[in-house]
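Newbie here. two chains, one complex. Structure please?
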Amino acid sequence: MENKRLEDQIKFIVEIDRLKRIFRQNVVIGTIEQENDAEHSWHMAVMAILLSEYASEEINILRVLKMILIHDLVEIHAGDTFCYDEKGNVDKFVREQKSANQLFSLLPSDQAEEIMDLWHEFEAMETPESKFAASLDRLQPLLLNYNTNGHTWKKPGVTSEKVLKRNSVLENPVPQLWDLAKEIIEDSINKGYLKKE
Amino acid sequence: MENKRLEDQIKFIVEIDRLKRIFRQNVVIGTIEQENDAEHSWHMAVMAILLSEYASEEINILRVLKMILIHDLVEIHAGDTFCYDEKGNVDKFVREQKSANQLFSLLPSDQAEEIMDLWHEFEAMETPESKFAASLDRLQPLLLNYNTNGHTWKKPGVTSEKVLKRNSVLENPVPQLWDLAKEIIEDSINKGYLKKE
């Protein structure tokens, strides 16, 4: 290939195919297959399109979608860290930053910078867009767990208090979705999907 | 839930989880696992972000992303039709339209209409956005096949002529990517991934 820029872009595109092999804690509804990060990112992106009307602040939906589509790429080298694994979360950011440097540097520098900036914005949760994206990053697995009899919530160390705290990210960015999340958590306790604590 | 609109949106979001179980002909690189439509849609969406500079006409990238993210939802009821299966492709649109009616009607009517319009636009391949999206719908599996020793191309009835014809969709919307596709096909013939015909 004569075009070095396109060559680099294609190398990156082929490399990120690996996101389809990074498995998460929850399972796909109606199966015993663990969901992977590519599926999760796609699902969140469709949710963003359909639920943007619930954002309490004005959001740029294009930036939200870009952020969502790339937010888990760093797990290609760093792996998925279970959100209720306190030990794993101690060095999570360091591992992921290293992974980001390695992965994004495959791209032409302008695009590497854009993707890195989007990822940092997502992680910092300071802008309306990243708060909205982070909310969907909580709500998506909540919906999956609710529809798989609380699959992930059966793992050691998970309690309703922790699930509620993790989902409280939704409170200000998407108040109506926060009410929904609380309803789901309450109902999950009643149904025995989630241990009350 | 008191909010009927949100309830419908959530039902739809849970229903489309099934896209993760609609399997395609190609495999994920480095595995023997068939790729599914959710993974494929995610991969195409990231490609759209990175390769938009090659579009020969101005495109609205937000509309491209929306179109890509929903373009295969109709396969939830209609199933994946192998692009080189001439018989299966005869009634493909009818089956998919029926599936679209059934699936999209779960949504509030304004959103059902938006998604239906996007899907029709994608299928018609008449706008710059849908031509660009359709091009990526060809290029993504081409890249996967090239990186899995021509996995899908070993199936009965597949020849280099058919693969070239299918990818010729790229010619006008993304000329540089069309050159790349031709290079990949040529190299695949040389490497024995694809039968010359």
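Moderator note: The mean pLDDT of chain B is 96. Chain B is about 60% helix and 5% strand. Thread marked as resolved.
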